[in-house]
Amino acid sequence: MTKVLRLVGAAVLVLLLVLITAIGILGSRSPREQYFEVAVEAVPVSSGDPAAIERGRYFVHAIAVCGVCHGLDLAGQVMSDSPIFGHVRTPNLTPGRNGVGQYYRPVDWARAIRHGLAVDGRAFAFMPVDHYYHIIDADLGDMIAYLESLAPVDNEGAVVDLNIVTRAIINSGLLGDLVRAGIMDHGGPRPTPPAERGAYLAIVGGCDFCHGPGLRGGQGPEPGAPPGPDITGSSRIATWTPEQFAAVMREGRKPEGDIINPMFMPWRNGYENMSTADIEILFRYLRSLPTGAGPD
Ligand code: HEC
Ligand code: HEC
């Protein structure tokens, strides 16, 4: 018996050593230490035009849902204060204290939004830029007009301080690719915008991030999140009324009455701002998707 115990003990020790070494190697490098040089194409921006600013505000807060991470006033907010995971405060986008709006030019906004890269070419962690890459010039121009118009809000500077275990987990790919800029083809031709607005909303809105390729079901990266269910036309949403779908987007409320945790699906400060018209377009589009034949 003691011999068996000793063997088990030795095996556990070896495993532990392997684990510690793996964490040490994988965690030594920050996943954010990736640099890319891209030729950023300038887009026309109607700076100061109230109509463009209004359209940009809508796109930023309802479709691209920047406020979910950067706060409703876009002045940055604490996303994680966990000693286990690390500390993350998103950057202040306004022209206030510590805000990038103080020095960002239109081309810098385009680089950040479409490519997920800072002015020096460093790739951002966590920001879903592979989805934003699909934003067409007109919408990007409106977004920039809006971002340029932000009122200055003072805040503390951005912090992305990931501890060694978190770095190791992210670098191992266990949570998927969290530095989305690192998986993009920055030099390729611009993606062709889909003919349907519903498809465009789903792509830019990042539904497949959690609902999987073709929206046939997937898994978001948030620890503890339930799977993102199938939301194609042969899923249970086929039997829903437009009001039932709207309740999910606006209040996170499923037909059974339970509320989706906004940490697991970004409806609060996000999709809840979608217009009724866009929610209907999205619903019609999802229901038109045959299972197994959605966009990948
Ligand atoms: C899922 C969360 C998330 C969403 C959504 C998001 N961001 Fe970010 N963003 C971040 C994080 C985290 C960083 C810092 C990343 C880093 O430094 O590695 C960041 C960085 C930035 C920066 C870089 C500032 C600098 O230091 O140069 C800009 C600009 C920015 N975001 C703009 C936006 C805009 C505009 C949107 C919407 C179109 C958006 N973000 C949506 C999480 C998010
Ligand atoms: C960050 C992850 C995430 C993103 C992005 C996301 N969802 Fe979800 N969604 C979820 C999760 C997780 C659930 C299931 C929650 C539960 O069961 O409590 C869900 C549930 C739903 C449901 C309810 C399905 C059912 O059968 O009850 C609908 C509809 C839905 N999402 C639509 C969308 C649409 C449309 C988009 C894009 C505009 C989107 N989601 C983006 C994570 C996400």
Question: Which helices and strands occur, and which strands form pairs?
Answer:
Layout: H1 2-27, H2 50-63, H3 67-70, E1 78-82, E2 86-89, H4 106-115, H5 129-132, H6 137-148, E3 159-162, H7 164-172, H8 197-204, H9 207-211, H10 242-251, H11 276-288
Helix pairs in contact: 1-7, 2-6, 4-6, 8-11, 10-11
The protein binds heme C (2 copies).
Residues 32, 60, 64-66, 68-70, 88, 90-91, 93, 100, 112-113, 118, 124-128, 132, 158, 160 line the site of one heme C.
Question: Can you give a write-up of this model?
Answer:
- The structure is a single chain.
- With 296 residues, the protein is mainly alpha-helical.
- Helices cover 39% and strands 4% of the residues.
- The protein contains eleven helices and three strands, in the order αααββαααβααααα.
- It has a three-stranded antiparallel β-sheet.
- β1 (78-82) and β2 form a beta hairpin.
- α8 (197-204) crosses α11 and α10 crosses α11 (276-288).
- The model has no long low-confidence stretch (mean pLDDT 90).
- The structure holds heme C (2 copies).
Q: How much of the residues is beta strand, in percent?
A: under 5%
The gross shape turns out to be globular
* Rg for CA atoms: 21 Å
DSSP summary, beta strand count: 3
CATH class group of the largest domain? Mainly Alpha
Give the low-pLDDT segments.
none
How many domains would you count in the coordinates? 2
Name of the CATH architecture of the largest domain: Orthogonal Bundle
Primary descriptors:
296 residues, mainly alpha, Cytochrome Bc1 Complex, Chain D, domain 2, 3-stranded antiparallel beta sheet, 11 helices
